[in-house]
Design brief:
six-stranded mixed β-sheet
C-alpha cells in the first residue's frame, strides 16, 4: 500500500503580506499529479487544512476545486482537522463527501471509524485523529487529566481496540499534535495546555505508520521511523528558509513494515536572509554568487527570492525598502540592528529616568528611532518645538 502523507496546507495564509494562494493551488495540482504517478492508494492530510477557523472565500473555493479533482481522478483523500481549523466548518457535508472518496475526520466520534483501504496483501485501516483540545473533549472521552497526552492516549486506545475487533494488523493514524523532541518553527501556533504542549511518541506506539501534522519541518518524531511529520508544503516564515519542503511517500508491506521516501514539493521562491549596511548590500546586488553569510559576496541571485534584510547602518538610511526593492523586488521584511548601538531596555530606562531636559528626552527618541544620535540641526528643531509647546502651555 502506498500512501502520500502531507499536512499544514494553511490555505489562505500569507507570507508577510505576500498572497500564497496561487502557489498553494500549484502545490495541490502537483500533489494530484504525484499521487497518480506514484499510484497512491490515498492521500492523508494531517490537519491545518485552512489557516484560520473562518477561512477566506478564495481559500474555500481552492479546497473545493482541489478535492473535486481528486474525486474525479479516483484518489481517496483523508483529511483531519488541525488546531487552525474549525472542526465543524471543515467537517460540513462529510457524509456526502465520503461517497466521493473524500473522508473528513473532524470529531471524537470519528476516532474509531477508519477509512478501509485494500491491496493485494489485504486491508489497511486509516484512522483520523483531529486536533483534540483537552478542555473540549475530556468529558466525551472520559478523561480526567487536562493534557494532550491524556486525550491522545485515550484516542489511541480506542483505535487499537477497533483495529483488534476488525482483525486488521496494518494500521495508519493521522494526528495533529506536538510530539516531544520535535523541532518547531516560528510560524506554528502554540498548542500549550496547562503549561504543557507536547506528548511522548510512545502514545502512538504499535501502529504501522503515524502521519503527523503541526510542525512545519519534515522530520521523524522520536526514535521510531514510522512516526513522522511531513511538514508544510510551503514556508510560512523565514525561520523555515533552510527547510526542504516535501510530502512523504509511505509504502506499507504485507507485514506492516514501512519504508518512507520524501518527495520534494514545488518551491515558488527560495527564502533568503542577508545582513549588512545598505550601501554594501546594494553594491553587491548585481554581483554573481550565492554566499548568504555576508554582504561581501555576490547577491545577484536574490532577485528571484523572497528576501529578509537586516540593516546594520548606525544611522537609519533614507527610503531603504524602496531602494532594496529596486534590486530585489520580492523583499518582504526589513529589520534594523545597528552595529554598536544595541543597549538593554534597563539601560534605556535608566537614561530616561535621569534626564530632566525635555529636549534631551526628545533626542533619545531620535537616537532610538534612527539608530544614531541627534545632530545640531535636529537639536535646534527639537528645542524650538519644545519651547513653542511650553509657551503655548503657559499662555493657556
Amino acid at each position: 500500500m502506498r500512501l502520500i502523507h502531507t499536512s499544514d496546507w494553511h490555505l489562505g495564509r500569507t507570507l508577510h503580506g505576500e498572497n500564497l494562494l496561487p502557489y498553494q493551488d500549484g502545490f495541490l495540482r502537483w500533489l494530484l499529479d504525484e499521487a497518480v504517478r506514484q499510484r497512491a492508494g490515498a492521500v492523508v492530510v494531517a490537519g491545518d487544512i485552512y489557516d484560520r477557523a473562518v477561512p477566506p472565500l478564495d481559500a474555500v473555493r481552492l479546497l473545493d476545486a482541489a478535492l473535486l479533482r481528486f474525486a474525479q481522478a479516483g484518489i481517496p483523500v483523508i483529511l483531519t482537522s488541525g488546531n487552525h481549523d474549525s472542526a465543524v466548518r471543515l467537517g460540513f457535508g462529510g457524509g456526502l463527501s465520503e461517497a466521493a472518496g473524500i473522508h473528513l475526520r473532524t470529531s471524537v466520534g470519528d476516532l474509531a471509524r477508519p477509512v478501509l483501504l485494500a491491496d493485494e496483501h489485504g486491508p489497511v485501516a486509516v484512522y483520523g485523529v483531529p486536533y483534540l483540545l483537552p478542555d473540549a473533549v475530556m468529558a466525551e472521552l472520559g478523561v480526567r487529566t487536562r493534557t494532550h497526552e491524556a486525550v491522545l492516549a485515550e484516542a489511541a486506545r480506542l483505535i487499537r481496540a477497533d483495529a483488534a475487533t476488525r482483525g486488521i494488523a496494518r494500521t495508519v493514524v493521522a494526528a495533529h499534535a506536538f510530539v516531544t523532541g520535535g523541532q518547531p518553527a516560528e510560524s506554528e501556533r502554540d498548542i500549550r495546555v496547562g503549561g504543557v504542549a507536547d506528548v511522548p511518541a510512545a502514545v502512538f506506539a504499535g501502529f504501522s505508520y503515524v502521519a503527523l501534522g503541526h510542525l512545519h519541518g519534515a522530520q521523524r518524531a522520536g526514535p521510531d521511523p514510522e512516526i513522522r511529520y511531513s511538514g508544510s508544503p510551503l514556508a510560512f516564515s523565514f525561520s523555515e528558509k533552510d527547510h526542504v519542503k516535501s510530502v512523504t511517500l509511505a509504502e506499507i508491506d504485507a507485514a506492516g513494515q514501512v519504508r518512507t521516501t520524501l518527495l520534494p514539493a514545488p518551491v515558488p521562491r527560495p527564502l533568503r536572509e542577508v545582513r549588512g549596511t545598505l550601501d554594501n548590500l546594494l553594491a553587491c546586488a548585481d554581483k554573481p554568487g550565492a554566499d548568504q553569510h555576508g554582504a561581501d559576496s555576490g547577491l545577484a541571485d536574490l532577485a528571484g527570492a523572497w528576501v529578509k534584510v537586516v540593516l546594520t547602518d548606525t544611522v537609519r538610511p533614507s527610503a531603504p525598502m524602496e531602494r532594496l526593492r529596486e534590486k530585489w523586488p520580492h523583499t518582504l521584511i526589513l529589520d534594523f540592528a545597528p552595529e554598536g548601538q544595541l543597549t538593554s531596555s534597563d539601560a534605556d530606562l535608566e537614561r530616561l529616568a535621569s534626564a530632566t531636559d525635555p529636549v534631551e528626552i526628545c533626542c533619545m527618541f531620535v537616537d532610538f528611532t534612527s539608530g544614531g544620535p541627534a545632530d545640531g540641526a535636529h537639536r535646534a528643531v527639537l528645542r524650538a518645538a519644545v519651547e513653542a509647546a511650553q509657551h503655548a502651555e503657559s499662555a493657556a
